[in-house]
Structures are given as C-alpha cells and as structure tokens.
Amino acid sequence: MKRRTDIRNVAIIAHVDHGKTTLVDELLKQSETLDSHNELAERAMDSGDIEKERGITILAKNTAVDYKGTRINIMDTPGHADFGGEVERIMKMVDGVVLVVDAYEGTMPQTRFVLKKALEQKLTPIVVVNKIDRDAARPAEVVDEVLELFIELGADDDQLEFPVIYASAMNGTSSMSDDKNDQEATMDNVFDTIIEAIPAPIDNSDEPLQFQVSLLDYNDYVGRIGIGRVFRGKIKVGDNVTLTKLDGSTKNFRVTKLFGFFGLSRVEINEAIAGDLIAVSGMEDIFVGETVTPVDHQDPLPVLHIDEPTLQMTFLVNNSPFAGREGKWVTSRKIEERLMSQLHTDVSLRVESTGSPDAWIVSGRGELHLSILIENMRREGYELQVSRPSVILKQFDGKVCEPFELVQIDTPEEYMGSIIESLSQRKGEMQDMQNNGNGQVRLTFLAPARGLIGYSTEFLSMTRGYGIMNHTFDQYLPLAAGKIGGRRNGALVSTETGKTTTYGIMGVEDRGTIFIEPGVEIYEGMIVGENSRENDITVNITKAKQMTNVRSANKDQTNVIKRPRTLSLEESLEFLGDDEYCEVTPESIRLRKQVLNKNEREKSAKKKRLATE
Q1: How far is the C-alpha of 240 from the C-alpha of 227, rounded, in Å?
Q2: What's the gap between Cα 236 and its chain centre?
Q3: Residue numbering of the annotated binding site
C-alpha cells in the first residue's frame, strides 16, 4: 500500500489544563514554521476571548508545522466533555493521537472520554507526560495509570506498546527518560516520535475523490466552510462535485475556494490530495458528516455520529423593567438570528421554537456549553433572559431515562464524609475510592446529571476551595426516583423599584446573604440575596433613613455593611429556581422572579398547588 511520507495527521488530546495548548505553542515556536522574529502570543491556539480567560479550549483548532521536510498537521481538541462532539469528529481526520497527561495529576475523567474515542478508531497513541518539572511529579506511577486506563478501555496489543516522552512544555524541554534532570532543551523528541510512530496517510490520490466534512466554520464573504480530510483522490478549485447530504439526497456545487493550513494561518491553495486536511467553500448548506465526491462517482463515506444534547434551557427576550437599557440587540428577531447563526458551526446545539415568538428551547451538551454561548452573546451586545437548566429525558424500552455522569473528585481527606453524604442525597453512587497517601483521596461517583446542576458552588464551599471536581456524561439510565438537587435556601426578593441604600441593606443583612451593593438600581421582583432559611421572603433594600430635626447621640457613627456576594454567570445559572429567570445584558447579570409582583406570584403558586393536588 502506497503511503505519503511527507505528511502526518495527529490530534492532541488531554484533560483541561494539562498543558496541550502550551505544548502546541512550543512545537510552533521550535519548528521551522514561524520565523524567529515572529513572536508567538501565549496560548496562540486558544483564539476566543473566553478560551484565553478560562484557559480552556472550546473549539478544535487546526495548525500545521514543518519539521525536517515533513508537514505535521496538528488538531488541538477540547479537553472538556461538553465539547466532546468536536473530539469525536476530529478522530476521523487523523491517524494518531498525542495524549498529554499531567505528571502529578495523572489520568482524569475527560482524558478517559477522549481517549476512548481515539482507541475505538484504532488510532496510534503517543503519550507525553507533561509538567515533569513539578515538585510533586510522579511520572512512573502516571505511566502505570495510563497503561491501566488503556487496558480498561479495550486498547489492542499494538496500542498498548505506546512510546512515552517526558516533557515540560512551559520550559520547551523533553526527554525519553523519566528523570527530570535528563531534560533536553528541545522538543525534537516529540517531533521525531510523531514521525516514527504515527502512520503516514495512504496515497490513493489517483482514485475518485472522497472528502468528508468534520468541522464547520463560517465567513461573511464565502459563507459556510467545511473543514475535513481528503480520504481519497484529489480536489481542485473550479471542480464540479456532488455533496451527499445526511439524509442521502445529493446536491451539485462548484468548489470556489480551497484552504490549507500553515502555522496558525489558513492559506489559499489550488489543489489538495488524499491525506491533506483542508477547508472547502462554495456550498452554502454543507453540514458535518457529509461527503463530497465526483459528480459521476457518488460513493459517500459513513455518516459521522454526533453526540446528542443532554441539557436544555429556555432563552427569552428580556421583558424586565430594565429591558433595552444596556443591550444593543434586544428584539426577538435579532436573538433568533444569533441562535440560528450559532447552528452554522456548533453541531451539538439544538434550537427549537416554542408557542411564543419570544422564547426558544436551546439544548446543549452541558452547563459549560450553554453558559459559554450566553457569555459570548452578552459580549456581542445581546440582552436576553434564560431559565434554570433542566436535563433532557428519553424513553428506552418503555422506561423514562435520564443522563448520568461519571464524577471524579480529588479532595483532602477531612471533607470526604460531607462530600459522600451530599452526593448520596443527590442520588449519586460511589464507584471507587483511592487514597493517595498524602492526605488526598480520589472519589468516583455515578450521579444523575440533574443532581449536579448547581452542585459545584456547594462543593467548593464544602471543601473550602481545596476540592477538584470533574464530571463527564456516561450513559442514560432509568429515572432516579424523587426530587434531586435544587436550591435549599429561599431568595430575598425586592418589593420596591429604586436605588439600594446602605441603611436598607443593613436592615436585612441578618436575614441572609446580599448580592447587591448600595447605590445600584433594582426593581420589584428582583432577587437581591439568598435567604438563610428555605422560604422566599420579600425585602425592601431601597429604604432611606428617616431624617428628623433632632440630633441623635450616635449621629456620627459610620454604617458598615458586609461585602456583597457577587455571582458569576455560572453561579447565577446554578442559583436559579424553577420560577426564576437570569437576566443577562452586556453590563449586568440579574436574577429575578418570573412573576415580579408579590400578589401575582402568590396567586400563581396557589394555582400550581391546586393543579397538582
């Protein structure tokens, strides 16, 4: 079988924050791709603002480096399971994977999720044990953990013979030895191992074309762009080709532009052959998993599987008393256009219309997936409100089933009891417990996804910030009986519209935790804090101190109030109850009751009670 020796296609996979993007940045620096004067911004492959701020990769990026006459195409993949749909499709584009594992933390749940996808595709693995320079690094044990994980995930004999490189991507050093003192000031060990271990693509460029779309991009000038691999044959600008759709129907189109990848840039090319990773434009409604073939030889590849959403929220037009004050795009038409444009590139997202023209049900892979969409929209100037997230139930064999997640927790021993108790209350079952011998334990649970909505804030306060929790979708199982999760405490709800005062806040501080500072405009029905008890209570924090003409003995005392608890977007979504909305604008995140007036709320709650009795 003839192979192309001038190219290798490889994906880099890892858990969040194990250093894969840093590794790619270092490979770019040390290869012949970028000139020495071409300064590389830190985290070059994380191009979105949110990606850079959170230090996570959301969308798969493609880059290419040249090393000793070989073009190495590198796909940087998301490490977070909410973006696992991307990972799965990238595995179709490459011939091998570089698994990056932290020399201290070892294998983690998302590592497991992504690696399983790679091994199922029979890809050749290489393991890079990164952060070897950490004081607590334990490279030998980590390699054993990786081997155990490979065996557990059903790796074949060839895959179990994986080469291991020990590196510090931050310092740009690598070695084939696990002794941190043997590190060499170069990444050549990584490059050489990729070229030696990863199979070269099959060269069947003289056969009829097969190009499959694995990722989508969108450009205002050329429309939708399909990114994928040429599996067979060759493709040229100007070719008339056939697109076989997911439903089996076909459409002819002309290739208007082809792009290859070099460094961090896309470059226009005239022709691509089998083994190349390219981007194609010319077909407006091209979609992931569809195949481009010659008009006279239609032979599509099997359709790619895309993970279904597990969580949904209602997105609504903002109708609060402050609607339209802070946003640029506030109408239902603009919000709907933005959601529909997200579908151009995000294949794990679903948007359904409801009975109302001002509301849409948006489904995604998890809280992070949806919260990043909301955060992007607010940064772009959109104003909207969203409901509490809920899980998507499905029927299997006549039984109602819900998504369950595999939860892995690393925590100091003293918090273990309260974690086990809190997760068992949320219907979680402990699967495994490992004591690391240094006062840390690793707990593994299988828990319903709805029990984990809003759990991370409780978990962080329970472990005083020392606990680390990771969870990834595992499977659908029969619905767990009873109510799970949800907020235990009620809300402090404003009765008035106006500006908050120090005097007003002082009067209600002993009732719970306040979210708002003095001098902030609020409205009736807005949530201004969390009650220390289970029920909601109404409060007035706009109250001003009554002035009299009698001088008081303590007139000159300074009023001191506690610092308010400021909620991030994720914390706000976790805090939401079923009868509440989160109002999101470019400048503010507010929590509110769906029914703002107290009397109307009580009537509505009474109706619901009577309906269920």
Answers
A1: 18
A2: 35
A3: 17-22, 130-133
Kindly state whether residues 472 and 565 are assigned to the same domain: no
Shared-domain flag, residues 121 and 44? yes
CATH of the domain at 536: 2.40.50.250
Closest by alpha carbon to 60, among 48, 72, 42? 48
Collect the ranges in the chain with pLDDT lower than 70: 32-61, 79-85, 109-110, 113, 485-486, 548-558, 613
Q: Whole-angstrom Cα distance, residue 233 to residue 600?
A: 67
Q: What is the pLDDT of residue 607?
A: 85
* Residue 54 confidence (pLDDT): 56
Which CATH number is 189's domain given?
3.40.50.300
Same domain, 447 and 504: no
Shared domain check, 250 and 175: no
Position 311 scores a pLDDT of 92
Amino acid in position 52: K
Give yes or no: residues 35 and 120 share one domain: yes
Tell me, what's the pLDDT at 440? 82
Q: Cα(603)–Cα(558) distance, rounded to whole angstroms?
A: 42
Residues 6+ apart with CB under 8 A from 30: 172, 186, 187, 188, 191
Give a yes or no: residue 16 inside a domain. Answer: yes
Per-residue model confidence (pLDDT) at position 36: 38
Contact 216, 287 (CB under 8 A): yes
Q: Which whole-number Å values give the CA distances from 447 to 66, 403, 411, 452, 577, in the listed order?
A: 45, 9, 18, 8, 20
Which pLDDT value is given to residue 41? Answer: 47
* DSSP string computed for 415-446: GHHHHHHHHHHTT-EEEEEEE-SSSEEEEEEE
Q: Are 217 and 188 in a shared domain?
A: no
Please give the Cα distance from 570 to 454 (Å, whole number).
9
Q: What tokens appear for 562 in the block?
A: 């506690």
404, 410, 413, 416: CA torsion to nearest 10:
-20
Extract the tokens encoding 438. 């240094």
Q: Tell me, what's the pLDDT at 551?
A: 61
| Domain of residue 530, residue span | 491-547+559-612
Are 180 and 137 in contact, with CB atoms under 8 Å apart?
yes
Does residue 513 lie within any of the structural domains?
A: yes
DSSP 130-160: E-TTSTT--HHHHHHHHHHHHHHTT--HHHH
Residue 404 tokens read as: 């369950």
What the block records as the tokens of 64 is 């290419």
Residue 440 structure tokens = 């840390």
One domain, residues 21 and 159: yes
Residue 1 lies in a domain: no
Residue ranges at the known binding site for GTP: 17-22, 130-133
The answer to whether 289 and 306 are in contact (CB under 8 A) is yes
Residue 148 inside a domain? The answer is yes
Whole-number Å distance between alpha carbons of 143 and 20: 17
Element (H, E) at 382: none
